[in-house]
Amino acid sequence: MTDPKRRRLLKAGGALLAAGSLPLSLVELAFGKDRREHFSFAYLSDSHITHVRGREFVRNWDRGLIRAVAESNLLDPRPDFIFYGGDIAQLGKPEEIDHGLEILSALRGEVHHVMGEHDYYLDLGEHWRKRLGPDHYSFDHKGVHFVVLNSILTFDDWTYHRWSSAAERMHQMARLDNPQGSPFMVGESQRAWLKKDLDTVSHDTPVVVFSHSPLQKIYKGWNFWTDDAEQVQALLQPFDKVTVLYGHVHQIQYNQIGNISFHAAMATAWPWPYPSSYRQQAAYLPKLTVNMNRADPFFERDATGWQFIDLDSGKVDVHYLLPGNRNRVVAWDGKAGHPVDTRYQAEADRIPPQTHY
Amino acid sequence: MGNRNRTNRFTGLMIMACAGLAAPALADEFTQEDLQRWQQEYRTVVDRGEKLFHGGLPSRNTVSCDQCHPNAANTHPETYPKFQQQLGRVAALRDMINWCIRNPLESEPLAADDPRMNALEAYITQERRGVALAPGKH
Amino acid sequence: MNGRFCTAGLLAVFTAAASAAPLGLPPVPVPADNPQSPAKIRLGERLFNDARFSADGKVSCATCHVPAKAFTDDLPVSKGFRGLTGTRNAPTVINAAYMKTLFWDGREPDLEGQSKQPPVNPVEGGLPDHAPLLEVIRKDPGYVKDFRTVFSVEPEDIDMDQVAKAIASFERTLVSGDSPFDRYYFGGDSGALNAAQQRGLRVFTGKGRCVSCHRIEQTQALFTDNRFHNIGVGFRKIRGREQETARQFLQAKRAGAKVDVAVLTREKVSELGRLAVSGNLTRVGAFKTPTLRNVARTAPYMHDGSLATLEEVVDFYNNGGRVRESDPLSPFLSGGIRPLGLDAQEKRDLVAFMKALTSPGLDRLATRGGRNHD
What confidence score (pLDDT) does residue A347 get? Predict the structure, then answer.
């Protein structure tokens, strides 16, 4: 007979996973320890819907988004809303954005969107804005102030004067490791808007900021980077509880800089290696992050997924749902003062990590 | 390019590699100019590989290698040959290149002696230069 | 592999010479707390075939795992007491010893856990609990003698753990490799596969991508990855009802509903697959990869027995996880399931290859099982 420990593990595996994949805690926490209400939202990102020809789109990326939508529709209790973290499209084509939004229309609930560079650099966001509205805005929900920024702008010279066509510009920006690329930024006018927006918010209000690129500097070579990150962080500095949620990097990342917690979203399309795996350049992955593994690239959903997030007292717990891998939870640890992986944070608790890349 | 030519070049590269280790005492069979030219020849193939890797392969669905492997990261050429469960056997790097061409790219695999395969291997390995060989490693 | 497993020379039971695993298979893992012994195996075999362990006295393990039918029952879904049917196809017991989880949804971690469930399932054995089964054993002088020999227990101390251990020990003897494929691939006999079968092997490991889940390695081939995948089977039964089915079932489960009863008695709940066991939302409709050894002898196929022939199975995969190309695809489909583009010849070759996975010892296993049938 299987030894009792393994047996317990296998049996309990169900229960543990259930706790990791269903917000059972909501049932208890709905009555809240403090005046703020506890709630959750789902968070999907980076689907890179790619038009091939005629009515054909890349099947792999379509299936990733279709599956994330179907799975997130199973959340019970229902999340209050859904966030989409940007890069619906691969090359910014209207037919790609439309096809992605058609798949997303199956989501049960209201969806908020962030602009990604793949949505922007063909027509400078025209079709995206036509379908989805402004690219930066804020709103309040159950005592939390949410801010959405367009963080994938860059120097005007690169955007307006470098390329012979809009399609060429889009192709250049779509290549992640492009030596002719240009760093992302929020830009002066949005920062001014953000400052004004935050002026009316009390400092004990939890603030959650959504951007596509990380509002921290990780690796410039792949644009895991926002050039004016420090200036944006400075505007968020006065608040007690701040969380930045971003897409773009297609991998689990989390970090703490001062009062600001950072969490990245998985892509529904494909995973990216960690920048530290590129041996010809130095990179700055947050030390805190326990890297995700690549289970098996045969399975198209390997190291892809989606997440739901619950807000307990204004701090964020991110539940990663990973079809090809074991689910993970990165939760706020009040004692440590930063987010931790609830299962793998301690060195001794880690499964044999992937080391080669 | 004929097969004989390629063989000669390959031999040349091998000699260069050995000579590199034994530098600075060069034999009189080849010159500094030879070394530079061979390096340039090599770079030409690496550059061709880089282009193929970034959308230059015929891909039925437009997907390209660099979409998942920026700077050929996570291709870990130093770990081949190794057991690969998708294939059920110990595989070489080129087997995995062809696996990717057939699956994510939904296209026809390359012949083992296709110059494009050669170029892809050159680019991938060049981006991983300096890492110790670790065959079989997962 | 867990450190507490050892590998006993249990195959000696079969043939005088056999002390190693058959060609193509690793040694059978045997848990340290349930070592093999000839007396325990004989007891397990008798228990396996005893139909008194059911509400109508007609259903034994061997009812659905018929020795003469490669330890399956030829039925899409199995028939329990009073002819009641469940939702799942009976998998073969042959080589189940290598499985890392048992049942299509992996709800039990080992053979010992597996055999306790069917006698008390309302559409299988139909017993209210294990008490009547233990009562039969305790009143049977033959069993009393055997349990005393094997477990050193008096009748009143006979329990289900011992019953399950004996059955598991018997099942661990039902292993078979040495198929034409094994002789070709591992045994160096290039004539063991004909030309079509050899081409089929290339499709299996190449364009067909079968090997990604039905694993072949360099020295052994279990033809399973012991993982769970949604390949599209059964989707039509739950289509559009996934949300309410999952919500209702998971709520019922939290309130104490039994998984094995729910999945075998409710068709839609059955189609939740691994989700019903783990609660993990990424496992909707995911079922365990079965071994393909002896697959030509274990029709019909899939967790619900919905495909009658190997040709239908190949078409199902070739259509990207659906019976017809015009059928809708499950949104929960596993990554890796996509149209394969196999032509008629490649499909024929693939079927020919699967027919080369039949072990020569099957009939001997069956005779053995049949001889002791009660």
Answer: 84
* pLDDT value, residue A32: 35
Q: ipTM for the complex? A: 0.91
Q: Which of B51, B59, B61 to probe by mutation at the A interface, max A CB count within 10 Å?
A: B61
Q: What pLDDT does residue B45 have?
A: 98
Structural domain contains residue B106: yes
A323 touches chain C (CB under 8 A): yes
| Owning domain of residue B52 | 31-127
C290-301 mean pLDDT: 98
| Mean pLDDT in consecutive groups of 10 residues from the start of chain B, 138 residues | 46 48 61 93 98 96 96 94 91 96 94 96 97 92
- Domain C35-175+362-371 in CATH: superfamily? Cytochrome c-like domain (1.10.760.10)
Residues of C whose CB is below 8 A from A321? 280-282
Selected residue with higher pLDDT from A29 and A185 = A185
Report yes or no on A353 lying in a domain. Answer: no
CA atoms of B47 and B120, how far apart (whole Å): 9
Residues 6+ apart with CB under 8 A from A68: A44, A47, A268, A305, A306
- pLDDT single digits (tens) A93-142: 999 999 999 999 999 999 999 999 999 999 999 999 999 999 999 999 99
CATH number reported for the structural domain that contains residue B51 in this entry: 1.10.760.10
Residue C370 Cα, gap to closest chain A Cα (Å) = 26
* Torsions phi, psi for A308 (to 5 deg): -120, 155
Closest by Cβ to B90, choosing from C205, C207, C218: C218
pLDDT at residue A353, rounded to an integer = 64
Tell me if A26 is assigned to some domain: no
- Over residues A229-253, the mean pLDDT reads 97
Q: Report chain C residues whose CB lies below 8 A from the CB of B89.
A: 205, 216-218
Which residues span the domain enclosing A168? Answer: 36-348
What is the per-residue pLDDT across C145-161, written as a single tens digit (0 to 9) for each? 999 999 999 999 999 99
Q: Is residue B88 part of a domain?
A: yes
Class level of CATH domain C180-231+289-357: mainly alpha
Task: Please list every residue in chain A whose beta carbon sits closer than 8 Å to the beta carbon of residue C102.
Answer: none
pLDDT digits (tens, 9 = 90+) for B112-135: 999 999 999 999 999 999 999 999
3-state secondary structure chain C: CCCCEECCCHHHHCCCCCCCCCCCCCCCCEECCCCCCHHHHHHHHHHHCCCCCCCCCCCCHHHHCEHHHCCECCCCCCECHHHCECCCCCCCCCCHHHCCCECCCCCECCHHHHCCCHHHCCCCCCCCCCHHHHHHHHCCHHHHHHHHHHHCCCHHHCCHHHHHHHHHHHHCCCCCCCCHHHHHHCCCCCCCCCHHHHHHHHHHHCCCCHHHCCCCCCCCCCCCCCCEECCCCCHHHHCCCHHHHHHHHHHHHHCCCCHHHHHHHCHHHHCCECHHHHCCHHHCCEEECCCCCCHHHCCCECCCCCECCHHHHHHHHHCCCCCCCCCCCCCCCCCCCCCCCCCHHHHHHHHHHHHHHCCCCHHHHHHHHHHCCC
Residue positions counted in chain A: 357
Return residue ranges of chain C for CATH 1.10.760.10.
35-175+362-371, 180-231+289-357
pTM comes to 0.90
Q: How many domains does chain A have?
A: 1
Angle between helix axes A94-104 and A59-72 (nearest 10 degrees) is 30
Residue in chain A lying closest to B134 (CA): A356
- pLDDT tens digit sequence for C89-129: 999 999 999 999 999 999 999 999 999 999 999 999 999 99
- Within-domain flag for B26: no
Residue C296 reports pLDDT greater than 60? yes
Residues of chain B contacting C217 with CB distance shorter than 8 Å: 83, 85, 88-89
